[in-house]
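Section 3.1: Structural characterization of target chains.
Under the original work plan, the team committed to producing a structural model for every single-chain target entering the pipeline before any wet-lab resources were allocated. The record below documents one such target. The sequence was received from the expression subgroup and is listed exactly as submitted; it comprises 218 residues.
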Amino acid sequence: MSERSGIDEETAAGRLHRALRALAACDPDVARAIERVGLPAPRSRAPGFATLLRIITAQQLSTRAAAAIQGRLEAALADQIEPEAYLALDDTVLRACGLSARKIVFGRALAEALASGRLDLDGLTAASDEAVIEALTALPGFGRWSAEIYLLFALDRLDVLPADDLALQVGFQRLKRLDERPKAKAFRAATESWAPWRGAGSILLWHFYGAATLDEGG
């Protein structure tokens, strides 16, 4: 990945792989999946505005489309992806990058919350999962999925399951050889036995499915 995380990659990989080996010891289907596709790499992202803005960009888009928009946005910002720099861009520039009108509004609300200090991301580092979700979902454009993606990728919370994610639902359907794709409520219930490694299991499911959430390419 081009954007490095504040989490040491070797440490992140070690934690992820230890969690998945523990999960595999409890779930034969997980063990078979790892044998088939191997252990996934960690998908760590640096905590902060850039990752949250990327999450907004990626909402309801294919990985390839989101990556293209993100690349144009980074170029427009001269790779200085900071709240003040984003706020300084005109809407016409942001539209030319490929952002919809709603996502421009969401990005500006995020940037303003950070620039004003109303949202303290440093303070979220040690907060509980639910406290982080509450703080982020108070922002326009951030639902539970967005907050859970931030928890998993930027804060390395390995028990977070973004159950509304379509790729995860399909991955779990394939893993368990289910007739139907589980919806979020059923998905959460079916993975209760994966605690405290549900986030690690999510990363494996993306790997198993072949998805690349927040990655650069399709």
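The CA atoms of residues 17 and 166 lie 24 Å apart.
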